[in-house]
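Q: I have 749 residues here and want to know how they pack in 3D. Can you give me a structure?
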Amino acid sequence: MSQQARINAVQDTVQRPGRSVDWPQTGNRPAYVSEIYGTNVFSLKNLQQTLPKPVYARFIQQIKGRQTLDRPTADAVAHAVKVWAMDRGATHFTHWFQPQTGTTAEKHDSFLTLKTVISGGIEETTAIDAFSGSQLLQSEPDASSFPNGGMRSTFEARGYTIWDTTSPMFIRKGPHGTAILYVPSVFISYNGEALDEKTILLRSSEVLSNAAVKLLNLLGDKETKRVYATLGTEQEFFLIDRALYNLRPDLKITGRTLVGTVPPKHQQLDDHYFGQIPSRVLAAISEAELELYKLGVPIKTRHNEVAPNQFEMAPIFEEASVAVDHNLVLMETLHQVAHRHKLKVLFHEKPFKGVNGSGKHCNWAMSTDSGDNLLDPTLKPETNYRFLLFLVAVLDAVHKHGGLLRASIASASNEHRLGANEAPPGIVSAFLGEHLTEVLNSIEENRDVRNFSQPHLQVVKVGGTVLDLKVSTLPQIARDLTDRNRTSPFAFTGNKFEFRAVGSKQSPSFPVVLLNSAVAQSITEVTEALVKQKGNKPEPSIDDILAVVRKFIAASRNIRFEGNNYSDEWVKEAEKRGLPNIKSCPVAFRQLLEPEHAKLLTSLGIFTEGELHSRFHILMEKYAKDLVIEGNTLKNMILQGVLPAAYNFKKELADSLNSQKNLGLDIEGSPELSTLKKVSKLTAELQQAVDKLSGIIDKVNGLEDEKQGDVAGTELTVSLDEVRQAADALEVYIADKQWPYPKYTELLF
């Protein structure tokens, strides 16, 4: 790769014309977002307008889980969605599912069917467009080529995708003005084992609902029939020029830069955060938003993030299973739209060394079927006993199963980000804020809550206060109940918990599954404690509730931390409290098989034992493979790019010195000689580091199963860093015209 290629790529970024997309019109004005929203979604409203009332009623009962979907109803829904989709250009349909690869999968089938008719005694084949209820309900992709953790042999290929009726079908653009109908689905093996992320999410949602409804019934709420987790995913990502991306083998293959020094200016001035969005990026994000609005994805915010070329998009909260679908649709849409703008979106948690990485902050809460948020403290949380019971249940879950939450966010890519002063560390703790902490302390100590509001200020919503800005032209503003702790992995932020440690590249499904499961178990234990406390009384009294709340407050006290999670003091304090500090992925993955965690997941029916062991082996295998791929990519980049550049630069320096020597000049004190000695030393060190890396890669490849992950996590990660340090040291000295790959200055600015 030549310096000329870098020059051409940089020139291309400057000279390339921008892409413009016309916003839809309504009459003579631009369409409102509300008018665009969901136009490419086959909604219940579409279905209600199409189906006979009795058929529609049967379908609604099926969605609610109250009866099995029968064939006539399935056929009617299939016909209705086929007509709707084909009227909008659809030629194919696909069962869209989420295998354990971190991405989505799809196999396209056309609506085309051949039908034989007999006319005048002669058979004739004609083409028709058809989509039956059986085709809608299930499909058969090859299950052997997806991760299965040993549950399926290569020759056992059959697997099934099954329509998830709780998530709406939608259409997306295809080639040449056509469209494709997407049917959200689960993915199971021939024997019924879960091979995907959606099946376990739906299981955990049902378990959580059952546990929460029982507690609500005990508290006198007989109306609520269902409780569901809500989720809002703040998606962070980088956008870089695609021409420069194409000159970086590490970015193309691994998603992150394996070599590269931080430029003199990066994020230290904090000038990028919330700054003006670059016009080219804004055009891409705006086009992505347009497509997402049509797909019913409720995107709410967009802004610059902390690092150069880093951005964020975030939606309005939705039911967790739909929110996961929408987050994956967002990622796919960003990828496709960025391509049209000659940009490349990077979802890797740490694509650039020395600047902040990216997360996917999962804002999680619980809601009743009437839309009541169970984690809303209201004006006086100290007397909102329902809130207190659900709050202590969540804290109990995090305390007992923090290891599971740590396992849920472990990956080779997220390992670079966690604890790096930009993301929460490997110690799982919960932040509540000063006010809620005081509420819990007062209940535990059986005393009144201290008044947090200043006497001369009015108390406003959620127990907060009004802030007087001392400027007559500015209005008073309401201060929230709690501050926000950016260092906490699991922070309460007003009426929800923000699980900040989730990685930007991963599906939010697995973290939510484990969180749902742990909370469901703790809610059940709270319910059992309350039943025991109330005795023979028809309903628990306030004293009964407070006694149970007090018990769980004391039991989960160690998980609560209000300070700086990055500090060394917290590491020491966490150790005293008995909280695990899990730093490596293999250790985190093994949390899944710890008896107390495994019993939780299998007893609730989230996983079978086979599925749980399968999940562990898939995670370990992927971790090792990711690191081996990084190792081989880095080795090739050094051998084929960096070292040849060093050799050429050394030759230039040597030629210069020889020319001076031939002219009779003294070269002993020349800068060329000094640089040559430094480059020669660094080149030798780099060669040795690469040789060591190659040996460790061979060692990992020669091991079996989970041993690969252990060695990769200890030896290979260290070797990767050693090679990088040597290569980055060389980048400082080698002439820019010799350096083979686009540098950080070009990629980030």
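Q: Anything worth noting?
A: Residues 37-194 form a domain with the Ubiquitin-like (UB roll) fold (CATH 3.10.20.70). DSSP finds 23 helices and 22 strands in the chain.
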